[in-house]
């Protein structure tokens, strides 16, 4: 192209446009076809400042251009967003490549074939088939869930200052800040928890099979083993000197029973012992759990308006701890043991409210059979009034009380936000390995295979999972919703946090 222009502009030679292109082509051993190509490339550059795509190595593709592939990917996201079912297809890329803007950009008159578009989609990470499970959509953006998520992300911003960070190569890139041992500000180590179940018949279903040698497949999922474990970005699984926090449980009526809150509390107590032995008391743990009912359960003596009746009664079993009146005085919910008529009896909600000066005539025990009060109501029935009292509303779960009593921090992820808990990806990696193991004939052999697969996930992979969850938290903290956060986490896959101008990028991508 440079030779063509030099020949054409040389006043001594006085070559015409076509003649200049022929001489330029001949100089590199080419003929008239290459001369025409040089003329087209030069005109395209002068009009639109677009250079031709170099493909002299034979293996290059338009998709090697990151800006171009990102443009295609954003177009597919916009198409999916505009359709009720969110579907996209390879034909959408074919049609997009036929637009005048793309033809001008690429300098091509013809578009691409459907098969090329399919290859491009595969290269960008799109797969044709049944959609994989990702984030929960139902409930993900409910107002109360979003409100809790915003508060969680703000708390996380405070936690993260005291935590070390790692890049996607597994290297430690920053140390905790704001440490003050004298005032109890120790380095924080994030310890995340979750449970998962492995099934005996969970095996690869897609493989090459000969039509005449089909092997019969067992029915159902087979026997199951549940795993409850803790994961950290510093060490991977939480273990020390042969002691490990992992619990293996064979759930079922005629097996080990069912994994309850008491089982989890016992496991957490053991996990804290291991953590403290590993850190020698020079760090504090941030334990995080799913926002499940079994995890948020209160201790047996915890304050709960749901357990109360309106009238006095003699109750057996553990007694509820004392409450606190609005004026700050302690309040027992039981009559004294030397009471003449009701020694040791539960007072009932009516008497409890009278002692708090909150009783009024005509109050029902609760609204309806299912305790469904009108939205925003705070004093419609006895149970709702107590439910809204500060001492009842601020009653912590059994897990929180245990962890905080031992000097550590407990928090719960927002509901429907499994993408924030990086142990979820750890389960997926372990199950991918498990599905490739030979089919087992006994539960003991299955358990050995399962443990080998869980232990084989490398620490580098775990740290990358943790970084991905951190990107989602940072995205939500910057005001993105679920779909926008997923887009941002995918684009900035090598980072722990997102750029400050992410909202501007979303607007440019027409996703905001």
TrEMBL record:
Give the superkingdom in one word: Eukaryota
GO terms (molecular function) for this protein are: nucleic acid binding
Q: Which Gene3D superfamilies match?
A: Ribonuclease H-like superfamily/Ribonuclease H
Region (Disordered) residue ranges read 313-333
Basic and acidic residues composition bias: residue spans: 316-328
Q: What is this protein called?
A: Uncharacterized protein
Per the UniProt record, the lineage of the source organism begins with: Eukaryota, Fungi, Dikarya, Basidiomycota, Agaricomycotina
